[in-house]
């Protein structure tokens, strides 16, 4: 760590202008998972942890608020940053943002708001509502049969990868014709104009419940390990390999905290491990937005530390994060691993 | 050789080039010219006499900004895929391959630009990574042929980085002397002698010379050939110069393929053909012992008579990954290293998977490696082209591609395009859709052309079917 710190003064480790970044968010919108998340009664903190934020439940509205701020932050960091959001509900997935412009909704430009923010806020909300209505109709039409289907994360992942393939094609043909030294990969060759892509999966569905006795009333949550799910393991692994090939990391935020007694989603863990993405499980306490910024928006952090204008340690994040995040860009992973449980 | 190619005729005026090397003329006159691919040079100019063709000036864009030649290529790929039967085929997933490289002086010939060797080396580097991508459980070694000797550049191993590293050091790879095909094949055979017959043994030879100078003695290349046949080593040879009888004979008798590379692109095609796992040729009884043992072991004291499971079975182990702790000795190199994997059977430590355990010989793989081969087991169905008539009958046609959410062209526009291409006498390709829609037969979702390619070549999962 110290070594890289000293080097930064002499040789810049990464290009001065970070490339524009495309963030593809896959949001689990399974109605059952969210109802469990919102209704779960959080256990009180132990007596010796009074200085910590209390355990809280999380409703979808609260989380969407947080997510929109997070996405706006991503848009604001650098001109040219883009955001794509997919929703994955029981058995189907859908592109939520950006949607093709339907008809010129008499959009009054808001003079006091950054235009991309306006666009995101408006479209995201309306398409989210649209998807909920569709889902309600669909599930009512099936008499709640499809409700136990697992969320179509795999389907959303395939769509996200196809989207990346269209927007920022990773061309193997150029690599084939030019005999280049693959071990001598130049950091500048990828260029500042090349779009940096990441996929972020926000999972709300708990893995199989580890404690069957503490089962909550009502329908069982859809489990990821259940056999016979469509596009399960094989589909997930195929996505992982395609992402590896395109050098797209898959970040995973899994929301059901440990105190719900659920197991972590194993496939998603494996996906983020294999693609060198960030995996983080929400600890069930407050400050989720801050954690999101620290763990997942590395670009945001990097700009802050590059200019040196913001003292990271002054924010209320425990100092251990700031050390990792400010020292190297590669500290991303370690930052996530070092989070206190 | 010329007989194979009906369109080929000997160049009429070979005297045009008095200072050209005699060798070159003889050699290349045994090679067919590239024709039928739009590469026919005017007159009798040979590849090395031609002025540098500015290929970038030939590119034409169509109305959508798509490069026009690309469409034909894509159409060809589609046809090729459609021709591949979807009948189930038993493939060898565990492959062992030796790449035998001719490193004789002929490799310095300049008919492939800049030289044959440079072109081969460039392709080889991507070939290695692509090969390991599709055959994660495979192992590869490299043998060089020069000065009538054969030397092992990289011993059989499963680490693509190691091989690419070895190939990137050009100083060690100076072509010289003459090759000996026999020595190379012998060495490959020896290197694979200890391997079990359950894995597919292969060699890929890239042969540039038109002769082989083999050692004197009682053992000739024909005895080597019968040894190879006995050991079921599949030999594939790609010749860079011309067809050589012994090469063809070797390939035919061992069940491999022989090809003569016409130009750089063709060389690449020939090499890439060997990447997908070959159809299984190993007889099922090979693993009958294992299956019987499994059937017997499964029943224990119950003593019920269960038939052995159908199909071949292999013993494999999933290792335990060690956390990054202190340094311990590994069994494979005998070095102190952090991390690593523990063999589930004997508990010895190895540096990397997939590999065979040094101590007990168990094949150790990790589940992602195995999963990489799954797309052969669960292939994506071919997408059919949606014609204008079909699209017109459809009531609610989806507006966007299911994969990438790109907007499809409207039907009116499709008709317009069709009318224009009829006007310009452009041949209409049946495998290409005029509406630019390709429909999955299973889930009935429409996809654009890019997604069709991406799903079938890279992703191997249909975005619609997994919903």
From TrEMBL, chain A:
<keyword id="KW-0539">Nucleus</keyword>
<comment type="similarity">
    <text>Belongs to the TFB4 family.</text>
</comment>
<dbReference type="InterPro" id="IPR004600">
    <property type="entry name" value="TFIIH_Tfb4/GTF2H3"/>
</dbReference>
<keyword id="KW-0479">Metal-binding</keyword>
<keyword id="KW-0863">Zinc-finger</keyword>
<comment type="subunit">
    <text>Component of the 7-subunit TFIIH core complex composed of XPB/SSL2, XPD/RAD3, SSL1, TFB1, TFB2, TFB4 and TFB5, which is active in NER. The core complex associates with the 3-subunit CTD-kinase module TFIIK composed of CCL1, KIN28 and TFB3 to form the 10-subunit holoenzyme (holo-TFIIH) active in transcription.</text>
</comment>
<keyword id="KW-0862">Zinc</keyword>
<keyword id="KW-0805">Transcription regulation</keyword>
<dbReference type="GO" id="GO:0000439">
    <property type="term" value="C:transcription factor TFIIH core complex"/>
</dbReference>
<dbReference type="GO" id="GO:0006289">
    <property type="term" value="P:nucleotide-excision repair"/>
</dbReference>
<keyword id="KW-0234">DNA repair</keyword>
<protein>
    <recommendedName>
        <fullName>General transcription and DNA repair factor IIH subunit TFB4</fullName>
    </recommendedName>
</protein>
<comment type="function">
    <text>Component of the general transcription and DNA repair factor IIH (TFIIH) core complex, which is involved in general and transcription-coupled nucleotide excision repair (NER) of damaged DNA and, when complexed to TFIIK, in RNA transcription by RNA polymerase II. In NER, TFIIH acts by opening DNA around the lesion to allow the excision of the damaged oligonucleotide and its replacement by a new DNA fragment. In transcription, TFIIH has an essential role in transcription initiation.</text>
</comment>
<dbReference type="GO" id="GO:0005675">
    <property type="term" value="C:transcription factor TFIIH holo complex"/>
</dbReference>
<dbReference type="Pfam" id="PF03850">
    <property type="entry name" value="Tfb4"/>
</dbReference>
<keyword id="KW-0804">Transcription</keyword>
<feature type="compositionally biased region" description="Polar residues">
    <location>
        <begin position="171"/>
        <end position="191"/>
    </location>
</feature>
<feature type="compositionally biased region" description="Low complexity">
    <location>
        <begin position="204"/>
        <end position="213"/>
    </location>
</feature>
<dbReference type="InterPro" id="IPR036465">
    <property type="entry name" value="vWFA_dom_sf"/>
</dbReference>
<feature type="region of interest" description="Disordered">
    <location>
        <begin position="204"/>
        <end position="229"/>
    </location>
</feature>
<feature type="region of interest" description="Disordered">
    <location>
        <begin position="170"/>
        <end position="192"/>
    </location>
</feature>
<dbReference type="GO" id="GO:0006355">
    <property type="term" value="P:regulation of DNA-templated transcription"/>
</dbReference>
Automatic annotation (TrEMBL), chain B:
<keyword id="KW-0862">Zinc</keyword>
<feature type="region of interest" description="Disordered">
    <location>
        <begin position="1"/>
        <end position="44"/>
    </location>
</feature>
<keyword id="KW-0539">Nucleus</keyword>
<dbReference type="InterPro" id="IPR013087">
    <property type="entry name" value="Znf_C2H2_type"/>
</dbReference>
<dbReference type="InterPro" id="IPR036465">
    <property type="entry name" value="vWFA_dom_sf"/>
</dbReference>
<keyword id="KW-0805">Transcription regulation</keyword>
<dbReference type="InterPro" id="IPR013083">
    <property type="entry name" value="Znf_RING/FYVE/PHD"/>
</dbReference>
<feature type="domain" description="C2H2-type">
    <location>
        <begin position="438"/>
        <end position="461"/>
    </location>
</feature>
<dbReference type="Pfam" id="PF07975">
    <property type="entry name" value="C1_4"/>
</dbReference>
<dbReference type="InterPro" id="IPR004595">
    <property type="entry name" value="TFIIH_C1-like_dom"/>
</dbReference>
<comment type="function">
    <text>Component of the general transcription and DNA repair factor IIH (TFIIH) core complex, which is involved in general and transcription-coupled nucleotide excision repair (NER) of damaged DNA and, when complexed to TFIIK, in RNA transcription by RNA polymerase II.</text>
</comment>
<dbReference type="GO" id="GO:0005675">
    <property type="term" value="C:transcription factor TFIIH holo complex"/>
</dbReference>
<dbReference type="InterPro" id="IPR046349">
    <property type="entry name" value="C1-like_sf"/>
</dbReference>
<protein>
    <recommendedName>
        <fullName>General transcription and DNA repair factor IIH</fullName>
    </recommendedName>
</protein>
<dbReference type="GO" id="GO:0008270">
    <property type="term" value="F:zinc ion binding"/>
</dbReference>
<keyword id="KW-0863">Zinc-finger</keyword>
<dbReference type="Pfam" id="PF04056">
    <property type="entry name" value="Ssl1"/>
</dbReference>
<keyword id="KW-0804">Transcription</keyword>
<dbReference type="GO" id="GO:0000439">
    <property type="term" value="C:transcription factor TFIIH core complex"/>
</dbReference>
<keyword id="KW-0227">DNA damage</keyword>
<dbReference type="GO" id="GO:0006289">
    <property type="term" value="P:nucleotide-excision repair"/>
</dbReference>
<dbReference type="InterPro" id="IPR007198">
    <property type="entry name" value="Ssl1-like"/>
</dbReference>
